[in-house]
Amino acid sequence: MRSVLQKLARQLVLVPLVAVASYFLMAMLPLTTESEAKRQVSPELAASYRRDLGIGEPLGFLRPWQKLWRGERLGTSAQGVTGDELARKLSGSVGVGLLALPLALTWALGFAMVRTRWRRGRWAALGDVVPALAFGTPVFIPALLLAPSVVERGNMLPELCAALVTSIWPGIFLGTLVGDALETELSRDYVRTALGKGLAPGTVLRRHVLPNVLPALLDAIGPVATALLAGSFAAERVLGLPYFGQLYVLAVLNKQVAVVVVATTTFASLLVVVSLAVELTRYAVDPRSREARA
Amino acid sequence: MNRVPARACFGLLLLVGLGVLSLVAGRLFPEVLASTCPLGEDPMRPDRTVCELAFGGLWVSLAVGLCAGGLSTLIGLIVAAVARLVGGAWEQALLRGVDAVFALPDVLVVMVLQLAGQSLADAGHSGGLGPFGLMVASLALVGWAGPARMFRNRLATLEGQEFVAAARALGGGGVHVLRVHLWPALRPFALAVFLSRLPTAILTESTVSFFGIARMEPMSLGRYLGTSYAALIYEGGARVVLPAWALLVLLVLGASLASQALSASPRKAS
Lengths: 294, 270
Prior knowledge:
Structural class of chain A: mainly alpha
Radius of gyration of chain A: 23 Å
Oligomer: heterodimer
Helix content of chain B: over 70%
Structural class of chain B: mainly alpha
Largest sheet of chain B: none
CATH architecture of chain B: Orthogonal Bundle
Number of helices of chain A: 12
CATH topology of chain B: MetI-like fold
CATH superfamily of chain B: MetI-like
Number of strands of chain A: 0
CATH class of chain B: Mainly Alpha
Shape of chain A: globular
Largest interface: A-B, 53 and 50 residues
Number of strands of chain B: 0
Order of helices and strands of chain B: HHHHHHHHHHHH
């Protein structure tokens, strides 16, 4: 358990680091100039943004968080955000991500099985082409192709489509990993011994092989969670979902610096939570991780 | 020296072929492409054909990927070399920093860096970086952590070999061993790492440009798709999306195949 806590502490350090780094980066930006360049914000708006950041105040970097805590709005009334709205938008994105996770696992299982079958036949090359195809397709392309028939229908269909398009690449990535790990484990001596002693293949798979494949799956969950959350940004934008990804992109486009600071830190915190969940799951299901740390 | 695997050759050929095609069709003879394009005009820009914009975008995306991939590989290599040279607690501290950067999603950080860079550029403090340079710098600042981890691990493995121990026993210093003995063994791996960064950089750039945050001119594939957004949804979207998508996939396929094949069977040091 000590090792899990150490890992958690290392991850937790990331949150204040991101908060401070993003704050000072945003605080030093020249948001407006006298030349009134096309994409500059007006001096009044820039002054309002700077007030949100608490520049020049003692402990100014806590100012955006204080405002959110008090229920005040960060940024302008049209495009800013309150603490409640931020939580709602974040829960929307997390909901899409949670919807995408089982879809990704389904893709993974399907692809792992098909790839194992392909490997022995003339379709072996497809085992390499499909991952490249999935990786080479940015989330916004399938989202764009689906958008015309989905956007205006509502009834959670845009959310479902966002989860579907977001899950493709992480699912294929997981499938490749699981397929490789499965094949490695199936060729080991202990599997032959178990089969030789008369255990049914299904039982060998469930009782002996899958517990050894699980750590490889857990190792990949972190990057997959990052990919799912980052992918949901593009899907939300194309499918018109007013969640966290949309908020973030609009905040960057409109130079809402305080919202950018808060949203970036929130995203980093979410990644830490995912990492903690993965570590706890690993601790619970992988006896080797407990023994190595004892 | 082992032969280069067939998959790597195919991937490299695909990459070079696309590069030459985009240079010839998109930059040198765009008028030939415009007059022979079977996909017709772009719905948002009636003066340009879909082929012109797609191949022009391919050239820009490829150039961004090559520059950003090269720069992030170089930074990763330098960080890994420094970490191995200083060793001990400093190396561990450096690796923690690398892990912290690696944990952040590329798209998010590139968006923030683009916002910062563009605000500085608008205020006249761009430091000579145009949109292209700004995008390359943003992608390199985000993408060096993965290569640094990989190079550090490979260096640690190589340093455990007997020829390195022998060189050290004969009085070879850290920099000398790194330059003369380790670098030749690391070169094929560095190429594989560079090729693995190439599609990541291209895809990240495409996504950020698609959001309309990057101001790439001439347009990259992502910006092309992003600026054709409305037309894509309401009229003949597939005609615009599919060529750009196909080029993007072929580019990534070439880089992925070459990178996987090279990293799976690294050649022996000469």
